[in-house]
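Bug: token stream looks shifted between consecutive jobs. Job 1:
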Amino acid sequence: MEGKESIFSTFPGKQELLEWHSKQKKQTVPEINGHIHTPHSFSAFSSVDLAFQMARHEGISVLGINDFYTTDGYEEFAEMAMNFKIFPLFNIEFIGLQKDLQEAGIRVNDPNNPGRTYFSGKGLHYPVKMSENSGKKIKTLQEESNRQTYQMVEKLNEFFAENNIELQFDAAKLQKGLAKNLFRERHIAQAIRLAVFKEESTADGRKRLFEKIFSGKALKAPLGRVASVENEIRSNLLKAGGTAFVPEDPKAFLSLEEVIELIIDAGGIPCYPVLLDDVNGNFTDYEADKEKLLKELVKNDVYCIELIPGRNDYEILKDFVSFFHQKGFVITFGSEHNTPLLDPLKVSCRGGVPLGKELMEINYEGAAVIAAHQYLLSNGMVGYLDGRKAKISEKESFIELGKAVIAYFQKP
């Protein structure tokens, strides 16, 4: 699982780098997006290149890849980063399962599935480096995920045949045409939408076919709103209670402890993705109390969190982030882009409310710590973790070094 070469191969040593940076003109706080998905899992972007084109157009200086269960996109991401002079953060995302919380009915950061826990690793080794055991675990996760989606396609085909719907899919062809190594539920929804639009050329014809596919339920979303249409397809066909729903095998999940071990083995910083408030102001059981959440994270040696501000109220987000920032946490923001909706890359809060200076600075600090961590690892040094523990007392020096690393990468 080796990549090509380190993006830091031409960088000076730590002290020289810091001295160089001290002589540079002070820059304004940059626009940073530390969490996007690429076509290597599922993405709004048709290509990695498109993500970087949009980033350049919007003035984004730092971009973080954060695909599910895979580092396959790292090499292409690094190449594009160097071409566009946009600093890359090498991240990964898993869906773990905390069985005790599942049994207790406690929702973590999935609002619908108790115990299910989304979890990220920040600043992994690039070139990719992990133990054989970790590599096998990731491969098994990919295989289990793909096995489930292949079974969904089988169930869809059976349903279509039984109901005289003139659609049939070949899972392997769908995977090859729409996905990379990882074939996800969202790819199936995309395939169904494309097939309906190809089968029927008129709006009325498409609506009638969707109604037939949905067993008599009319399509609610406007046909032109692709993301909404595909979400409705998933809801009606692929989610629990749907025609083609296939329950996930427990083998498709690692425990939270296993996820954290794998991330550390791959060089990354364990990072908890916070869901925070929904549009109705609701929180999950796990996140409703900041103090309790803090204790849970610290208990698991997690001192890094990330948020997707586009789904959060500005005031709630700011209060929450300030609390964890004061506790020494590394904090980053992103946009995900793991639905068909191609929103801007510039991070803002719900309703397009700007982050503001304080939150942008916190985001910059978080990205700088990860940048410094990546730089140190690639040069054979110890990064932000001492074993499992974060070096909170050294955070400021990591921020200083990381800002120098980002600036040096982007110099003309």
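Job 2, same session, no restart:
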Amino acid sequence: MTDRHELSVTRLIDAPRAAVWKIATERLTEWWCPRPWTTEIVEQDWRPGGRSAMVLRGPDGESHELEGVFLEVVPDTRFVSTDAYAVGWIPKDPFMTGMWEFANENGKTRYTATARHWTKEAKDQHEAMGFVDGWQKCAEQLAEIAEREA
């Protein structure tokens, strides 16, 4: 596939990779969506094929359910999930595959979050929804926690 219909953000976090990974995977409610939105964890089964389910809640009563599965989980390095399947490999209408990567960079952590879409239309829709600002804000929130506690 030559055009992956990809959107991505990256941030250098001044904290060790293991610390950033731990916060990223164990404290999703603190950074996963831009404030004032909140994240309610339904289930996070951190293994390939495990369920990833949460509800994002907006300040005006909005809610957005996220349901999918993990495709890959490599501790301290990356996790990948998709909404193309429900647990048990039950196909759903896909929107994206998300990849969150954590790399050592001179004692700091290079965090990269990427969304790959099946179609240009889905990518354009995600971009119009505020992907760049929203996902950069999430990276900023993750960095704030990690840098404060590292």
